[in-house]
Amino acid sequence: MAAARPQPPPRTKITTAALREMKQQRERIVALTAYDHLFAGLLDQAGIDVVLVGDSMAMVVQGRDTTVSVTMDQTVYHCELVARACKRALVVGDLPFLSYQVSTEDALRSAGRLLKEGLVEAVKLEGGAPVLATVARLVEAGIPVMGHLGLTPQSIHQFGSYKARGIDPAEQRRIVADAKGLEQAGAFALVLEKVPAALGRKVAKAVTIPVIGIGAGPHVDGQILVTADMLGLFSKFRPRFVRRYAELGKAIDSALRAFGADVRQGAFPGPDESY
Predict the structure, then answer these.
(1) 117 is an active site residue
(2) 3-state helix, strand, coil in the chain (%, to 5)
């Protein structure tokens, strides 16, 4: 007989302060992405702590090759769908490319839109030293900010590939310094993507804010994956750091083919589906 899976935690609202407490108590943070009301509700019901409306919607929803093309209007739309479904989870919205890099004023307007129109409770932006003043200004305005270091997908054309970051000592030192800088600027947490596990441990120890890893090893304060990846719905590529917890893509394909066969053979609808 299979062992019973643990039940999700009580439906206590997750806040930025709660995430800090979770790090202090060494309670791992569970985070996933969502882009619509249906999936956001499923994640929230399952006890996911942080739901990120990521600019990964470009690949998952829009079928694009990078995250660069996502617009503010698109992000606001998807954030609002997700936020209305989440009662427990902290909802974080990704600031899209060029919505915060041009000026601090642009960043403030963009982040404000995500809170006012998109109904999120925090925003996420990519980068270290170049965005510290922006982070400080957003926090000063009352907007919670999550940082993002390591592989930053919005800079993919600069990097030239999705290879792991923080391999050489100089870049490792810069990432640790950027993490400390983000904390000092007021960020409440940060995502650390595709770096060696040893660097993940070092960053998590260097700051008091939660470090949520995606391909950053097991020694950080929490983990995030793209939901479509971990459910086996997205098959265009499969990063090494993804663990498949289901193969829903295959199950959906089977169901669709069965439906098609039943319709073509006249087996659907039957008496039970007819009035």
Answers:
(1) no
(2) 45, 15, 45
